[in-house]
Amino acid sequence: MALATDTQGRYSVSPDGQFLFDSDEDADRGPDFAAIRGSAEFGALRRRFRRFVFPMTALFMGWYLAFVLLAAYDHPFMAIQVSGLINVGMLLGLAQFVSTVVIMLVYTRYARLRLDPALEAVRASSGESS
Amino acid sequence: MNHAAPGSAFSHPTVTHTGFVKSGWAHTGLVKSALVKSALGKTALTKTVVAKAAVTFLAATTAVGSNPVLNLGLFVGFVAVTLYIVHRVSSGNQTTSSYYAAGGEFTGGQNGIALSGDFLSAASFLGIAGGIAVHGYDGFVYSVGWVVAWLVGLLLVGEMLRNTGRFTMGDVVAFRMRQRPVRVAAAASTLLISYFYLLAQIAGAGGLVALLLNITGKFGQSIAIAVAGAIMILYVLIGGMKGTTWVQIIKATLLLMCMALITIFLLGRFGFNFSTILSQATQHNSLGNAILTPGTLYGKNELDFVSLALALVLGICSLPHVLMRFYTVPNARQVRRSLVWAIWSMVGFYLCTLVVGYSATALVGSDAIVHAPGGENSAAPLLAYAIGGSILLGLVSAVAFATILAVVAGLTLTASVSFAHDVYASIIKKGNAEPRSEVRVARLTAVAMGVLAILGGILVNGRNVAFLVALALALAASANLSTLLYSLFWKRFNTPGALASIYSGLGSCILLIVFSPVVSGASTSIFPTVDFHVFPLSNPGIVSIPLSFLCGWVATMIGSREENPAKQVEMEVRAMTGIGSGLHS
Lengths: 130, 585
What we know:
Oligomer: heterodimer
Structural class of chain B: mainly alpha
Number of strands of chain A: 4
Number of strands of chain B: 0
Strand content of chain A: 5-15%
Radius of gyration of chain B: 23 Å
Order of helices and strands of chain A: EEHHHHEEH
Strand order of the largest sheet of chain A: 1-2
Number of helices of chain B: 24
Radius of gyration of chain A: 24 Å
Order of helices and strands of chain B: HHHHHHHHHHHHHHHHHHHHHHHH
Strand content of chain B: under 5%
Helix content of chain A: 55-70%
């Protein structure tokens, strides 16, 4: 059964409605996904990624929610003056900006030093090097 | 400095109402001044409002700042330059890839600026500055959500989305599911969210054109909205994703520079001492020292505020037009770079907004802002007039207008691509669509969407539709985020689960809004005279977001166990590595 593809031949839809990407069509020369997923390199990449991303998400969501709950329910605390008219609430809000930038920088550094090399290892071992 | 004494420079006897901006741009959906509502389109009433106010924004344009020629020149200049660029960059948008995703040719830096442009909508540009000017700290708290939300995109969604899909959210959530139902659901969510967000944006366009060109009648404003809509459709038809991205880049650059320069000027004026700005702001705000602490805006219903904050932080990177931006760069690494650029520019922008907001109160006064026809949305333009006269006012208004055009164009494109790719090509044509015909369908959908936007814009012109932004964010956080996260991180997730999380998110948000004070039972409601509200909050997120996660989980557990193991493995590998996606790193 001939399958129609778009201009770049990257996807097609089979008669039963399954959406196929080129790798399905050329199953014989496409990447062996099961083998890649089973490989030690892929396991390492996935572990490194999740070990960073999940705790970091919990951290920034918790920190943001703490700020929101304080702003919603503890006005006296937020009103404590620190310097001039600048109070705790203002500083905590600005700290959210700072923490967002810090998490971004930490993540990009981690990605560069730990994730990208692990990704290259997966690509190399699967013969998909770019 | 030429900080005009309020009144002397502004007041003018022949002032009439323009309906500038309206509450439609306001961002909270929580509070609207009754004044703004009552001033809409009622000239007699407006005259008394104007008479009462020492300073009105409109007066600024008709009296001293009355320079429609300058405003028109700036605006026409922007449109001409952008249309030319759109035309130049988009030769032969014939393939789906180039029309939908600019062939993935943008760099991370360019796309990052365009991403921030998507967010620097009228709601955040004028609305948050005004929110800080009038309500002080609570306006600032709101802006924090717009910054933190980017971490969701950076850590959880962006890179994996780019690796897995090609054009739409449907590509990812339907990857290993039964195509038809899941793509229909994804397209329904995309179209609904985009249209609500679009209406919220265009609701202010009429008022702003009216301000720029001094058109006061409802009919004239309707014509102006139609012309603005037509320009927007042109961007989308000619430019596709490449053209609209360039419009977004130009606009975002203008806006960021404009805000940075105004901020530096203001800081210089106050001796680079933020505390001095705050001190002067408290003296010129009727709330006094309360503007330095939480509670002025969200104090009446704390839970409602928490609900809004949740929808903000989880919804922003789940909006369809943002998800689609991740496809305009060549690979996941460039998505990462895009987000780095976007976060830097958003942090810078909202720091500037903090200064601009408090300075607007300090220099213009909160009473003058609240009593101006645009209400709190007029804070930034009034401040611009106070420090830079009619030229800066014209510039800020033109940039604000450019913002609406660019954001609305992006939304229209997103909706049309989702329809053409997820519904027409994948479902109606079962994947056998000719690329040319698919792009033609996308263009036709864009025209249809544009016409709907114009009609909707004319219909809501002057009405309070501020809740639409909050609703769109809640919808995105409920329907899209849960489905995306489950499909990217949960092996067992299946078709029933995906359908349940999308439809429960959409359905619960809309039901809760219908039975909330937004629609009935309060003086600010759409139907203030009837009361059928049973849900106490104006923001449904705190219920609908957990509900969609729960429904997705329950339906998955009830549904069949392993739906398509081969696709699941492929998706897992692709999402992490990009292998098999045809992308090159």
